Amino acid sequence: MTGDGTDIHQPVRAGIAAFVGTMIEWYDFFIYGTAAALVFGRLFFPQVDSFYGTLAAFGTFAVGFLARPLGGAIFGHLGDRVGRKKSLIITLVMMGVSTVLIGLLPTHAMVGIWAPILLVTLRFVQGIAVGGEWGGAVLLASEHARTEDRRTFMASFAQLGSPAGLILSMVMFKFVTLLPEADLLSWGWRVPFLFSAVMLVVGFAIRMGVKESPDFIAARRRRLASLKQDQAPLREIFANSKGLLIAAICSNVLGIAGFYFTNTFMISYTTSYLGLARGTIIDCLLIVSIMQFIITPLSAYIAERTSVIRFLVCTAAYSIVAPYAMFTLVEQRDLVSVTLGIGIAVAGLGAYYAVIAGYVSASFPTRYRYTGISMAYQLSGAIFGGLTPLLGTMLAQKADGNWMPLAILFSVIATISLVSVLALHALRGRTDARLEPA
Fold first, then answer.
1. Beta-carbon neighbour count of residue 16 at 10 Å?
2. So where are the chain's domains?
């Protein structure tokens, strides 16, 4: 404790809590995407051929993204009015419980049509939980920063949870895919989902040890002292910050859609169209995820020491050209080439993803910051993230072995973010939300 009663360890605890919590949430979310690419088509949609089964499985994957804006609105309101910490504890429990229940689901062979209905329902709950998680985790870390200029780096701890969750999910599926096919389909796929119960207990204990955000406490005091009538955070955003919200939504596209392109769609593409073994692509993504884990804090540190907006523009521009090198190497169909190819693309989008959270969060005033960044991120996910594997699968089917349409899709994703982050910068330059009264 310092002389004024401030706990000097809280920034570290907040960073760890944001990291561990988002790691668990994204682990839960990613194992679903991996299972959708590998086994869900056969287990829950066996009445259709492999292409349409995979498409249906990715459709349930997209359901989680469609639910995320609802989660962002619900928990954004709760986080802006009741507190960041309370909101984050609820999202963590929701995600963990729904994931464990997915691991206990009967398949289509056991209960028929009820199997996909239950799967979609639990996926919807997962989406609501993730919708409320990300914004709160970013704020829990960044608003505990000791100084304003350290917020980008602190926010990256929440972003660090994404590759960590992916690493854990890849490790779990690496083990279960070593099983014989019959064992994988009967019980092996359930193990990663059931393991979430252990992680839930750990994450809950860590988050309970973190105090409420200092920014939120100060904003609540000002709100209580003010004679002005409270306006719902979401209503205030649409009244005062619509342009900012749209720019923030589109600025997040590369980090979200690009990520699911490389880490979800590419599993299906390489196994279904290039004939790679499941174990090979999982090994590849595991290596790439470790690379992204290292890139995340390094990128945030470099961006803080140079120029955050310049860093975002450069990484988005790099990502426009990266997919052509990626697919050229992936077509070689060996572990080294595929890993190098996907790694080239992830280097750009991973660096961008590490920094965009802190930049977007600083664009909204404290009084509706949780709602603002949650809606920006989750609407981006609903519009672009969940549909990317679906669109990629349809393009791959129509392209008949030609990867150029897929590379163009990735370039379009990066271009949207490049243009939008420049627009966001211009809007911030005219009315810098960081200086608005909370």
1. 16
2. 10-430
- Supply the DSSP string of 360-389, one letter for each residue: HHTTS-GGGHHHHHHHHHHHHIIIIITHHH
> Which superfamily is assigned to 10-430 in CATH?
MFS general substrate transporter like domains (1.20.1250.20)
Helix residue ranges per DSSP H, 150-265: 151-176, 181-183, 190-194, 196-208, 214-225, 233-240, 242-251, 253, 259-260
pLDDT digits (tens, 9 = 90+) for 292-307: 899 999 999 999 888 9
With pLDDT > 90 as the criterion, what percentage of the chain qualifies?
23
Three-class DSSP category at 184: helix
Cβ(135)–Cβ(91) below 8 Å: no
CB 384 within 8 A of CB 349: no
**What pTM does this model have?**
0.80
3-class SS of residue 6 = coil
**Cα-based angle 90, 95, 99 (whole degrees, multiple of 5):** 150
